[in-house]
Amino acid sequence: MQLIKNYIAGELKEPAKKKYLDNVEPATGQVYSQIPNSTAEDLELAVEAAEKVQPSWAGLSLEKRAEILMKVADAIDDHSNELAKAEAIDNGKPFSLAKAVDIYRASANIRFFAQAITQFSSESHAMGDEAINYTLRDPVGVVGCISPWNLPLYLFTWKIAPALAAGNAVIAKPSEVTPMTAFLLSKICIEAGLPAGVLNILHGDGPSIGDPLTTHPKIKAISFTGGTSTGAHISKVTAGMFKKLSLELGGKNPTLVFADCDFEDTVSNVVRAAFSNQGQICLCGSRIYIERPIYEKFKQAFIQKVQALKVGDPLQEDTQHGALVSKPHMEKVLSYIELAQEEGGNILTGGKQVTLEGRCEKGYFVEPTVIEGLDNDCRTNQEEIFGPVCTIMPFDTDEEAVTLANGTQYGLASSIWTNDLKRAHRVAKQIEAGIVWVNCWLLRDLRTPFGGVKNSGVGREGGLEALRFFTETKNVCIKY
Ligand code: NAD
């Protein structure tokens, strides 16, 4: 059985207390590796290493820092098959998705911020003939990055890349549910020559290592992606410590389909938006509102496409719908399907656990599920299920669509499907969300601000927003 290790001061290390957690392959239900459940003692070693090396890392020329990060990105590409397979095994997502999306984006994230830092300029403000102000943006120092299980290496690198590029030393914690690709990345960093201590990776769960990490006095900024309740907990335990916090939290994203959309293209993309990664993407559109004149036609075409999704072993090339990430998560999703029925919902397709034959007979598979007949205020439509479950509802006017879309505590992402340009602009402006896609979904430009409003988060990632988060701003005013 493979033993995952921490990455501290450039070396792979066992945890000080020798405590381990089981790591399960969700497609088979079998424990296949063990991961350190790290503690404050491991954190101390990591902070010491990070503090020691950070000034020299920040002191490298931008070109040199970028060059080293580029080597890490290249090494990820060199190992892309191995990483994609590891991600599919660890998370349950189809190998094809892991290869095309997760691992592709992991190296793209690092490459993007390695380049971005060489273009990161700051402002100056002239005060006539009297004085000039200029802005310095220095690295924060030692920063913490905490990521979730749904896009393991993709989101892990999305955080560490800007932090490292900006000259910080990083203590990062991947999800204990999907630790494998972050572990493989530690080996890749050693191979690529990342200076020891610049990146430290500690494995383990929230109580054992998450809490010590977020409350450590020497860690001055925390970039967190995960659930809204964990985000609230981190806000509470760090209150009064004056840390920079970036919180990317849950979503319950609306998809607005207008009668004048490009019908076939919209149906295909709304299926993708609802069920990619088994619906376990924070940006997935799980509440689908359809303008009444096309409701029935859309419903039939949508169901047909959902039923055609191939559920199967994540390692098979033709699988489109893999396993859910864990048994507790599968049980949570199934309990929401039950709740939806208690709330009066009608299951149009799906609704059940799938038992596959062979290697995956004990895996955590759930059918892609579509539900109708629920009102907007029920729990099924208000709470984040984070699985292959969506609801469909009709609407009559633009105003009603916007009210329904905005009627939850969340505000992460949304998509609008229409050929009416004025309506697209008007509705996009009215939607309470950090991200609005029009006639597309998950079309990403890494320079754009990324994040949510309301209970979906605080702060923005992406492009300059991320580089600003990972730097401290200082104004220098010089009198002529
Ligand atoms: P989670 O909140 O349970 O865990 C996220 C990370 O936080 C994990 O690494 C976990 O170990 C860690 N953690 C748990 N308790 C902690 C504590 N007390 N202190 C510090 N760290 C702690 O979330 P999850 O179940 O892994 O991920 C799913 C959630 O993430 C969903 O709500 C989803 O919407 C959200 N998400 C949001 C975005 C976004 O960009 N907004 C992206 C992906 C996922």
Automatic annotation (TrEMBL):
Keywords attached to this entry: NAD, Oxidoreductase
Domain Aldehyde dehydrogenase positions: 18-476
Active site: E248
Domain of life: Bacteria
PROSITE patterns membership: ALDEHYDE_DEHYDR_CYS, ALDEHYDE_DEHYDR_GLU
InterPro entries given in the database record: Ald_DH/histidinol_DH (IPR016161), Ald_DH_C (IPR016163), Ald_DH_CS_CYS (IPR016160), Ald_DH_CS_GLU (IPR029510), Ald_DH_N (IPR016162), Aldehyde_DH_dom (IPR015590)
Protein name per Swiss-Prot or TrEMBL: 2-hydroxymuconic semialdehyde dehydrogenase
